[in-house]
Design a protein that fits this description.
By secondary structure, this protein is of the alpha/beta class. The protein has two domains: 138 residues, Rossmann fold, CATH 3.40.50; 186 residues, Glycogen Phosphorylase B (Rossmann fold, 3-Layer(aba) Sandwich), CATH 3.40.50. The chain has 13 helices and twelve strands. Strand 7, helix 7 and strand 8 form a beta-alpha-beta unit. Helix 6 crosses helix 9. The chain is globular and about 60 Å long. Pfam families: Glyco_transf_9 (PF01075). Its EC number is 2.4.-.-. InterPro entries: Glyco_trans_9, LPS_LOS_Heptosyltrfase.
Length: 350
């Protein structure tokens, strides 16, 4: 049963990460469509705010976790004298729970009992409906439903400027109409595919008439991985690693024909821009965290490893159970990714 309004002043709490924030945008914008006169405030992480800056009709309040205790004090001071009709507390991490504590709201909506980890339920007074085997995005949709928003299919209006679009156009236009973006790095090295295999797929794409672009952030892990891929390639790629901000990257992904990525934020950024994604998954269940609109294009070894390690299937275990191992991504073969590449090219007429 959904809560009874009015909902004129709504606070969203989702601090991180990039992929999850992308999922949450579709929920926020569905709420805006249903309650066009409601004021929306979103408490979000510092890096994620760089992606969301300019989100139509949304006030962003940045929570910088690196400030430690001061971040909570700042948040409390910022909201002094305010009282939200409802807080949609969309993150179970402890730091998010502590942030929820200082956000003044009549009603604080959190996850259902099965998803309320790290004491999440202690910081809420209403829960969304339980769901079985839900994708993260579908979990967020439950928050919209809790305040009376009818069922919706996710859509996105991401905040990019003409300057961002011009940046991507200028860089990609010389490459032709068929562009494969390889975004090879996840937040943890064990979730990355092997550089020589990325290189082999990149060369294969070039043989099929594609230009290849490698994207990523400025971290040492991402820079090194991109160089390893370039060195292993027989053909050439445009290396944009560390050379774009998040909004520019969003526009690069928008202009791409296809993206290949492991379990990482840019895969979900590409989804918001309607670009097909081949997701490479080994450690987490792609049915829960995969590129939402392109789950049929995932190449995964998650399920076989889950069965091997636990003796059970994903439906027999707590939803979202991860599998462990540093070398699991090596089980994803080049041939399986080539096969999926061919399928996507055929089905999307690329």
């Amino acid at each position: 049963m959904s809560l009874q309004g009015p909902f004129n002043d709504i606070c969203i709490l989702r601090l991180s990460a990039i992929g999850d924030v992308c999922h949450a945008v579709s929920t926020v914008q569905a709420i805006q469509r249903h309650y066009p006169n409601a004021k929306i405030t979103w408490v979000v992480g510092k890096i994620e705010a760089m992606l969301l800056a300019g989100l139509p009709g949304v006030e962003l309040v940045v929570f910088d976790k690196k400030q430690g205790k001061a971040a909570y004090l700042s948040l409390k001071e910022h909201f002094k004298g305010r009282k939200f009709d409802v807080l949609l507390h969309m993150q179970v991490a402890l730091r998010a729970n502590l942030a929820a504590r200082v956000i003044p709201a009549k009603v604080k909506v959190g996850f259902d009992w099965n998803r309320a980890k790290e004491g999440h339920f202690l910081f809420t007074n209403h829960r969304i409906a339980a769901e079985k085997e839900a994708h993260v995005l579908e979990g967020f949709r439950g928050f919209a439903k809790a305040i009376g928003v009818p069922h919706y299919e996710p859509s996105w209006q991401m905040p990019v400027t003409q300057e961002d679009r011009d940046f991507a156009e200028e860089i990609l236009s010389p490459l032709g109409d068929k562009v494969l973006v390889v975004s090879p790095a996840a937040s943890k090295a064990e979730r990355n595919w092997l550089p020589e295999r990325y290189a082999e797929i990149a060369d294969y794409a070039v043989q099929q008439g594609f230009s290849v672009v490698i994207t990523g952030g400025p971290t040492e892990l991402e820079v090194t991985l991109a160089k390893q891929i370039e060195n292993a390639m027989k053909s050439t790629a445009l290396n944009l690693v560390g050379k774009t901000n998040l909004k520019q990257l969003l526009c690069v992904l928008e202009n791409a024909s296809l993206v290949i990525a492991p379990d990482t934020g840019p895969a979900h950024m590409a989804v918001t821009m309607g670009t097909p994604v081949i997701g490479l998954y080994a450690h987490s269940n792609p049915a829960r965290t995969g590129p939402y609109l392109y789950q049929d294009y995932v190449v995964e070894v998650y399920h076989q490893n889950l069965k091997k390690q636990t003796g059970k299937t994903a439906t027999q275990l707590p939803w979202g159970t991860r599998v462990k191992g540093k070398d699991l991504m090596q089980q994803i073969s080049v041939d399986s990714v080539k096969e999926m590449f061919d399928r996507v090219v055929n089905e999307k007429a690329l």
